[in-house]
Automatic annotation (TrEMBL):
It holds the Pfam family CMD. SUPFAM superfamilies: AhpD-like. This is 4-carboxymuconolactone decarboxylase. InterPro entries: 4CMD/NDH-1_regulator (IPR052512), AhpD-like (IPR029032), CMD-like (IPR003779), Decarb_PcaC (IPR012788). It comes from the Bacteria. It comes from Pseudarthrobacter equi.
Amino acid sequence: MSGPGQPDPARNGVVQPGATSQDIYDGGMAVRREVLSDEHVDRANAAKDGFTEDFQDMITRIAWGGIWTRPGLTRQMRSAVTITAMVAHGHWEELAMHIRAALRNGLSRDEIKEILLQTAIYCGVPSANTAFKTAQQVFRDLDSIHEDPAGTGANPTPPN
């Protein structure tokens, strides 16, 4: 059971008022793992060194523990906003990561397509063109490892 300031699983990882720095980090890490996957976070943690350790700590506390844990938006909405920001700024590797995260957060491929169509109007057709290519590649990669083609975020099915 969670205590004061502890991430409460019943509240979808929301860090409570009065949380300690460690509570915020732990809540951020829990949400980061749920959204990006244990495998992704484990790779990022394994790659950190003395140069990148403070950055990894910062994004876990601030982005994941301070923003993604807030109750004001659903994870699907946060994914839609994040995808749009990645397209607007041309962060294609991050876009691919957040398309996978959006699927894990419950967005469908059709919803992602609609987000990308919206970005074509507000971020520009060339950026949306690259975003569609990025999404196609993510979907091909997921399909090739036998992940749920509907994009529900189901665990990969081992090949026969």
